[in-house]
Amino acid sequence: MASNQTPIKVMVVGDSISHGREGDWTWRYRIWEWFRREGVPILFVGPYKGTVPPDDPEPPRPPPLISEPARPGYLRTDGGYAKGASPDFLANSDHFAVGGRQAAQAMRLVAEQVATYQPDYCLVQLGFNDVAWGRYAPALVLASIKFLVNQARSAKPDLKFAIANVPQRTFIPGREDLPGSTDAYNALLARSIPRWSTEGSPVALVRLCENYSCGPDTSKAAYDGLHPNALGEYQIAQAFSRTLVEAFSIGLNELRIPVDILARPMPTPTNFQATPSPGGIVVTWDAVYGAFGYDIRVRIAGSSSPEEWFATYHVNSNRHDTTRCVAGEKWEYQLRTSGGNIVHSPWSAIVSAVAHPETAPGPRNIVTHPTASGFTATWDPPIGDFGDIDRYGVYWFDTDTPGAFPGVVGVRETAAEIVGLTAGHQYIVALDTWTAAGGGLLAGARPVRVGMGKPPTPTGVHAVALDNTTVELIWELDPSATGYVVWIADADDHNTCGNCCSSQHDADSLLQGKRPEPRHRIICDNTATLTIAKEGDTPSLRSVVIGGLVPSVCEFVFAVGAYNGNDESDLSEWVMADICTRLLKGVNIDEGDSVHIRIEGIGATDSPDDT
């Protein structure tokens, strides 16, 4: 094509793969370079010019109230490109690509943009968000793409389309279906596109997936398992250029990927510092242009060896807040710039600060009850001098859904009802108190299993003596229970006490050999550290080991109650340790007799093999 021809108007319609993040070249830049080398004058058109900028450094936000309007959403499109990008491109970088966008959304927006900007070609890269996060069936995603084509044509009947298929991404735990769904959609698209062309509006397939070095087991072209790194940007641009040459006779040669590709700059952040704040500790540093976020690792000083850190967080701004900490704790931090899953800067030097939070404690006397579609919670305000309470945060987390995200809502009353949860699933529940200083320490509540009421009385309760002062109390697991209460009483007066027991002891104190007082109980939450005993091939028993039963296990009796939230079952029958029952029946224990000891695993859901 002659260089004095009217520029071809090109609109890129895409998601985050096309939008890019601050510091990216983007595949749009690489195909712009290709157009120039091929002598094809083009004008990129669309409502946006930039990439996605990094998040603003902000303090933690309180959980939103149900009555509050949602935080205004806005499109973040003013991020910059790689340093070194041509000024000619920066003046010609318009596009219609938005991070997170689905074809199901773009199909209802494209007609207005086509009517406004009148492109000659639409380069369409959409569908991953529909297949992966929308979990739409491949046929439904295909229908969205076809509707997009029809809507765009309604605004410009002679519009031409180059439509990319969907790339594979690295494996996501719990999404074993994604590679197959991606393949199924791509196959449908390849079969359908030839039927979508009209005489004045041809449609051609871009085989992006086949040209992109990313898949369930590889991420050579993607910095995070999906989004293009410098190589991936070239590969996507090459796939589009190939279709433009072969299907539309634009240019003579497809884009060639250079052998040497410049690495993304990845310096360690500077001005790294930690400062006490009313909410805990604020950690800040100077932003690194083009960073894909930052990794910050944290620990309480003296709690681990110099080489160990107990948590590493990924943040997308140049600020991290340590909240819900205890006064007097010294926290230590290290920081590095992230270039994705593989590329990082060196770690910084360690910085530290001592926390002096001014936050309020969590609510008291939290009571939860499961409902058909969620749960209710009531509580009492905390006691102390911490200023006015703005709201409480009610948090829940689905322990039965891999990869689930926690839910949260703000409440100004001392009661809440949460609905819309999954029946049969167990949810952890916790609350915190928000004041002007921020949110305080979480207060735990009993977990709930939605759609199930009070569990039945535990059955199969029996106690096995492990030695003279230690028993293993075992009972049958019930799927409707979220936890259990273990009751301990003196053997000679439990019948007169019944359910009068009220003191609550932590199970860990018993495991550390501390003597339980008579008529005390232990809370055995299914989400806490528990043991699961395995009898043969039936891992259906729950157990807890109780030590420190001085002077002898035979001085105590035990019972178990089940709960779902604060809905409690009746107590089981009271039992003695097996060895005590044998003695009461006149059976002698001689030297050489064996005591049954069960090897157990640790955790709420483990089912270890006997060893």
Automatic annotation (TrEMBL):
InterPro entries: Ester_Hydrolysis_Enzymes (IPR051532), FN3_dom (IPR003961), FN3_sf (IPR036116), Ig-like_fold (IPR013783), SGNH_hydro (IPR013830), SGNH_hydro_sf (IPR036514). CDD domains: FN3, XynB_like. It comes from the Eukaryota. Residues 268-358, 360-453 form the Fibronectin type-III domain. PROSITE patterns: FN3. One of its GO terms (molecular function) is phosphatidylcholine lysophospholipase activity. Transmembrane segments: none annotated. This is Carbohydrate esterase family 3 protein. It comes from Cercophora scortea.
